[in-house]
TrEMBL record:
GO biological process entries: proteolysis involved in protein catabolic process
Name the UniProt record assigns to this protein: Proteasome beta subunit C-terminal domain-containing protein
Taxonomic lineage from the root: Eukaryota, Metazoa, Ecdysozoa, Arthropoda, Crustacea
Family matches, as Gene3D superfamilies: Glutamine Phosphoribosylpyrophosphate, subunit 1, domain 1
Organism: Meganyctiphanes norvegica (Northern krill)
UniProt cross-references to CDD domains, sorted A to Z: proteasome_beta_type_7
């Protein structure tokens, strides 16, 4: 009985909630338009904001994926690039995509980037860093282009350029040395390419392609792959030798004689080397 009353109250407050909920669920099917990405960058119309990200999928020392997509499309020009735990990133971005769609349907307008940033940081702050999601949010709204870096604990920064992930320090050093305002498009793309290459060659967890996403107020353009910074070498031939190819020059067999055996009980101290 109590559940029915709560459902009726919700319907009175949001008469179209059911249809909104179904449309929000359908947004998940629209976020699969990217198929192969190894590095994602977000650049605004004037190229004043760059966001380089490398993407290898792996578990500590094992690389399980060299083409894992870490670019997420939310709505309009709003995009997000991710670094961290794959499962946390997947669920966090899916949840946020549905929440942003609900927000858009309830307000009847596109969600500003500052609102999306606040929703993400509040959700991550509630979990006190236990969700391993380091995000970079970028896009263009009525207030212009924006780049936000969102850390797993919920702290955020609004910067002209930013990097996240294991190769971010090397990439940031390139940005700090060469970035300037009002860069030309080709100059900015080369800068972003060099920054990501710095992360690839100075971090064991980074690698694969350099892909670029250019975001303007009219939409987004994907360049993938823009460059392949680390090409896997090709074997020139097969090295298979038949048995007996290598000659055995001599063979020596020695018998080992055991004179005595001693068994000692080490007890609980496993570090006893006496």
């Amino acid at each position: 009985m109590k559940d029915e009353e709560e459902e009726n109250q919700r319907k009175c407050a949001f008469p179209n909630f059911s249809s909104i909920e179904m449309r929000a669920k359908n947004i998940m099917t629209r976020t699969s338009r990217e198929t192969f990405l190894a590095t994602e960058i977000v650049i605004n119309k004037k190229i004043n904001h760059q966001n380089p990200m490398k993407t290898h999928g792996g578990d500590r020392k094992i690389m399980t994926s060299f083409g894992k997509s870490k670019l997420r499309y939310f709505q309009g020009t709003l995009h997000c690039v991710c670094a961290g735990t794959a499962a946390d990133l997947e669920m966090t971005t899916q949840l946020m995509a549905s929440q942003l769609e609900l927000h858009r349907l309830n307000t009847g307008r596109e969600v500003p980037l500052v609102a999306a940033n606040r929703m993400l940081k509040q959700m991550l702050f509630r979990y006190q860093g236990h969700i391993g999601a380091a995000l970079v949010l970028g896009g263009v709204d009525k207030n212009g282009p924006h780049i936000y870096s969102i850390h797993p604990h919920g702290s955020t920064d609004r910067l002209p350029y930013t990097t996240m992930g294991s190769g971010s320090l090397a990439a940031m050093s390139v940005f700090e040395a060469r970035w300037k305002k009002d860069m030309e498009l080709e100059e900015a793309k080369q800068l972003v390419r060099d920054a990501i290459a710095g992360g690839i060659f100075n971090d064991l967890g980074s690698g694969s392609n350099v892909d670029i996403c250019i975001i303007t107020k009219d939409g987004a353009t994907y360049l993938r792959p823009y460059d392949v910074a680390n090409v896997k070498g090709q074997r020139r031939g097969k090295y298979e030798y038949k048995r007996g190819t290598t000659e055995v020059l001599s063979t020596s067999i020695r018998k080992i004689e055991v004179f005595s055996e001693t068994v000692r009980n080490l007890g609980d101290d496993a570090m006893d080397t006496a």
